[in-house]
Design brief:
Elements: H1 13-22, H2 34-46, E1 53-57, H3 60-71, E2 76-81, H4 85-88, H5 93-98, E3 101-105, H6 114-122, E4 133-140, H7 151-162, E5 168-172, H8 175-182, H9 186-189, E6 197-201, E7 211-215, H10 221-230, H11 239-249, H12 253-274, E8 278-279, E9 287-288, E10 290-293, H13 296-302, E11 308-310, E12 316-322, H14 329-338
Parallel strand pairs: 2-3, 2-4, 4-5, 5-6
Antiparallel strand pairs: 1-7, 6-7, 8-10, 9-12, 10-12, 11-12
Helix pairs in contact: 1-11, 2-11, 3-10, 6-7, 8-12, 12-14
Length: 339
Amino acid sequence: MRFASDNTSGAAPEVMAAVIKANDGYDRSYGADAAMGRVTALVREIFEAPEAVVHLVATGTAANALAIATHCQPWGAVFCHTHAHVAEDECNAPEFYSGAKLILVPGDHGKMTPATLADVLARTGESGVHGVQRGMLTLTNVTEAGTVYTPTEISALTAQAKAHHLPCHLDGARFANALVATNATPAAMTWAAGIDVLSLGGTKNGCMGVEGVVFFDPAKAWEFELRRKRGGHLWSKNRFLAAQIEAYLTDGLWLRLAAQANAMGQRLADGLAQKGASQRHPVQANMQFPEWPEGAHARLEAAGAAYYRFPAPPGREAARLVTSWSTTAADVDQFLAAF
């Protein structure tokens, strides 16, 4: 009954086997390993992007911060949702690496809208040399509210940014979960919807620790390499990162893992609804925010359940529950019984 985060699960057996295999013998360092070439070929095939360039880092914060820094000048504004991960959970890393300012865009259920984005864009960059300039747009899919942007919604937002000649980034820490939830193709969710650079998550969905940064505009890839090295995120033994992401993307493993996480999230949401719980946001992937009457926290935690408590009105309790690739129906049903 471990629902605190999909980060708390282990690595998928296929990923661990690939890491162990990569430990045999010798290979070139700093991304010149043979596996990295295969990863690039996989990404280009899966995303239908023959010129895409992918580089690897070990953390999502590094992926987001370095991708943003590569696309935004220090006098620019990075437009993100009020509760985006880059705004609330990365200790100012995007600002540290880019020197840019985050400007928060409101929107219900973790999603900005063309109207809310247009309003903020109109109020930014209008004071000439004295004010912050428009810099770039970053979206999160799956959002921090557990909701999902469709490709159509992403296109509408990137169109607003492109009207101001702004590059667009997608924080895809749970990108596979978003794909499964929408039944979209990787291309439709990214470059075909106006995304220039993607943080391709692996760690939350069965990898040991690897994130890809995918450039659909290869002209920016060299600058990223320099920033990655200067920022201390170029791994010497890159083959261990590449082995993970190669196994992850091979034969659809990443989508099967995400499908299990999403299915268990829906099973949990359905079971809680039958027991009278409500949800703060639509349950669309593998993260949910239920509310219930007082008393359930004590029962659940006494039974060994692990999750994050959230603030709630008097007489109510609230939580964040996240299912992972390794969550089973038995885990969900045990939680529901304890509830």
